[in-house]
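Subject: design request, 722 residues
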């Protein structure tokens, strides 16, 4: 006989008591003091009004004429089938061995038994296994869908259409994700429930906020209703389920559907993309597959031949004999994703970005074969900046499954709060992007973590002012190296400036060290040469924006062009910023690049010196060291041996085994500063004269006085303390 745990035994007694209460309502009504424990009554009352208890629902009566529920359906459409899947009937766990009898719904004992209570793992139709689902695993066994990327690819492979995606195959039928695949949405690319196109990155599990990341965090496990009171703690306008559709967080300041409306709810963005995809599906079916198509979300198998080609489902068309029979590989993928999105009506909460990815990619794929394409000109697939879940800044460690402690502070959602609390980080799992909680310590008042000053890699401490919110930005946008670390490496090598040492390797400032640029010599982020003086914090102008959030939108991170235009009247686009030349009033303009043009944009002055520094680096490596070097900005560690000496980064040269390894102190300093400037593309706005001073000195050090004979070093300005 099966041995049950003490916990299950207690649970069984509780359920029995609840069942007795159900069977004796008249007797209980006559008692002055009900004998049932109130918590059992509340559980029962919640459950009995839920969809899980609706004995007349199609989900439970669909097979009445067949006399039993088939093996493939029994797990989720009957309690005996679910218990069979769990092995509670003595059979093997994880499979349904026999059809289930009619007449049951999802009752208490489906979820309250020893196996279900201890279950934490879930295997999705794609074969992906989630091992830490906890109590939600009970829900996810059914709310996972019945198909996946793998299912679609298998069908295409069997039809011989993996490569020939625009050829009709009459034997190819529609593949249905099934209903309410909320867990497939929630886990995104980890479950691969949608069709994921090759070469694309997709959203990971959607981590909402702490305390709202599982099924029962948001839904009452018995009534299945959403806890609107809990939602309203952050989303103050939420009073009904319908109100949830109009939520749009400030981290979603991207026009995904391209309609120009950034105020609409994220669900409305998804609905428009669904309509756009349906438009693409119908155009493709007519023009490429040669057979018009219509969709009916209430009639299996959902896609039918549009017999009169009027774009609508007319009487008699939504019938099984008229099922669509002209699928190509591309059409099947897109139709599958359309159904994935339609059949999870809560997808905008479960994982909005995943649905946006699937819909956008499907439109894009169909457009490739259309003459008259669905217009994606103003639509957007990805969020921006800190919320771009496809960015290398967050996806780099997906295959490893762990972001190292040295990277976690700035590349995971929990990293900065952990650092601020403990002054260190540990390795953690990758996260989609940053989150509201990365900067906000309160999601009701949306206050931010208080930071008074920030220590840079050089050891220097800088600040915008005590408690200034912009100090938060400096924790990450500071770079990871400095004058100090480069000097330390050179000192360890103990060689002359032009002597090669195997102890030297490239030191990478890292990306977007805007804070280091802005504070200049106060941060010493660039390599500052001994005996030289440099500008400190850049003050943009009197009463002009001079910190992070006065120039950039806090969430979208784009530049507040209207602020720029108050002084620079010709600025209308971001590209216009590169055309600015604003010398201080009363000061003589400095022709840094020596071309005689003191009115050219300061960005152009920087570009000239930056390009020349790369030329001088190449010449120095070849002529002084004897090993040619080449730079590739998108491949770590950026500097490689130029095997054929052609001055170009050829494909066979860009690999770690071919990294440049014959460094001298002079080459290291120059290469470090070149990378410093290259990886802060906004340096011309953050601190232009500091950038020019660094470039000038690097050119002089590696190329001698002749290298800067025609250039002019901007003078050092005295600035107020920060």
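Subject: RE: design request

Done. Sequence follows.
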């Amino acid at each position: 006989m099966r041995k049950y745990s003490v916990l299950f035994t207690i649970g069984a007694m509780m359920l029995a008591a609840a069942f007795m209460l159900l069977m004796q309502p008249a007797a209980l009504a006559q008692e002055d003091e009900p004998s049932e424990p109130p918590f059992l009554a509340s559980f029962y009352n919640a459950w009995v009004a839920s969809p899980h208890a609706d004995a007349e629902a199609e989900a439970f009566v669909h097979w009445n004429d067949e006399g039993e529920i088939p093996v493939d359906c029994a797990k989720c459409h009957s309690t005996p089938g679910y218990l069979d899947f769990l092995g509670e009937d003595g059979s093997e766990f994880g499979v349904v061995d026999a059809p289930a009898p009619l007449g049951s719904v999802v009752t208490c004992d489906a979820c309250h038994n020893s196996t279900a209570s201890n279950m934490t793992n879930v295997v999705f139709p794609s074969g992906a296994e989630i091992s830490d689902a906890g109590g939600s695993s009970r829900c996810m066994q059914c709310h996972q869908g019945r198909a996946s990327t793998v299912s679609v690819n298998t069908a295409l492979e069997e039809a011989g259409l993996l490569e020939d995606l625009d050829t009709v195959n009459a034997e190819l039928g529609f593949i249905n994700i099934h209903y309410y695949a909320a867990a497939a949405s929630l886990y995104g690319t980890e479950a691969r429930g949608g069709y994921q196109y090759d070469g694309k990155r997709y959203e990971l599990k959607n981590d909402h906020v702490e305390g709202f990341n599982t099924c029962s965090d948001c839904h009452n496990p018995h009534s299945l209703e959403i806890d609107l009171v809990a939602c309203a703690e952050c989303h103050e306008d939420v009073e009904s389920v319908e109100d949830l559709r109009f939520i749009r967080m400030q981290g979603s300041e991207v026009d995904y559907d391209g309609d120009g409306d950034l105020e609409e709810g994220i669900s409305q963005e998804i609905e428009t993309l669904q309509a756009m995809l349906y438009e693409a599906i119908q155009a493709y079916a007519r023009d490429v597959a040669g057979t018009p198509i219509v969709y009916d979300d209430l009639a299996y198998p959902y896609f039918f031949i549009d017999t009169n080609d009027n774009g609508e489902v007319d009487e008699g068309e939504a019938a099984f004999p008229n099922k669509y029979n002209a699928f190509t590989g591309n059409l099947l993928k897109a139709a599958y994703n359309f159904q994935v999105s339609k059949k999870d009506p809560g997808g905008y909460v479960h994982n909005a970005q995943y649905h946006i990815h699937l819909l956008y990619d499907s439109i894009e794929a169909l457009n490739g074969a259309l003459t008259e394409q669905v217009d994606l000109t103003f639509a957007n697939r990805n969020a921006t900046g800190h919320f771009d879940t496809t960015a290398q800044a967050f996806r780099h460690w997906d295959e490893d499954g762990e972001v190292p402690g040295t990277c976690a502070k700035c590349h995971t959602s929990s990293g900065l709060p952990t650092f601020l609390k403990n002054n260190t980080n540990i390795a953690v799992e990758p996260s989609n992007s940053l989150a509201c909680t990365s900067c906000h310590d309160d999601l009701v008042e949306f206050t931010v973590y208080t930071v008074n000053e920030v220590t840079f890699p050089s050891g220097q401490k800088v600040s915008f002012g005590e408690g200034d919110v912009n100090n938060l930005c400096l924790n990450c946008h500071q770079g990871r190296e400095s004058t100090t670390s480069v000097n330390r490496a050179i000192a360890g090598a103990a060689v002359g400036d032009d002597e090669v040492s195997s102890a030297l390797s490239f030191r990478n400032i890292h990306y977007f060290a805007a804070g280091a640029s802005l504070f200049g010599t106060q941060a010493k982020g660039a390599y500052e040469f001994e005996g030289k003086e440099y500008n400190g914090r850049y003050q943009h102008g009197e009463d002009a924006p001079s910190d992070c959030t006065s120039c950039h939108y806090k969430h979208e991170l784009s530049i507040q062009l209207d602020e720029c235009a108050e002084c620079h009247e010709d600025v209308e686009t971001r590209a216009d910023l590169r055309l600015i030349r604003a010398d201080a009033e009363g000061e003589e303009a400095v022709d840094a690049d020596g071309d005689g043009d003191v009115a050219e944009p300061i960005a152009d002055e920087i570009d000239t010196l930056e390009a020349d520094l790369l030329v001088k680096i190449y010449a120095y490596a070849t002529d002084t060291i004897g090993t040619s070097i080449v730079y590739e900005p998108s491949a770590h560690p950026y500097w490689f041996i130029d095997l054929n000496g052609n001055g170009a980064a050829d494909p066979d040269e860009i690999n770690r085994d071919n990294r440049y390894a014959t460094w001298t102190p002079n080459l290291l300093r120059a290469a470090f500063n070149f990378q410093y400037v290259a990886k802060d593309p906004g340096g011309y706005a953050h601190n232009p004269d500091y950038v020019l001073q660094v470039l000038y000195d690097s050119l002089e050090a590696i190329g001698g006085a002749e290298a800067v004979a025609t250039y002019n070093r901007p003078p050092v300005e005295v600035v107020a303390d920060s």
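The mean pLDDT is 92.
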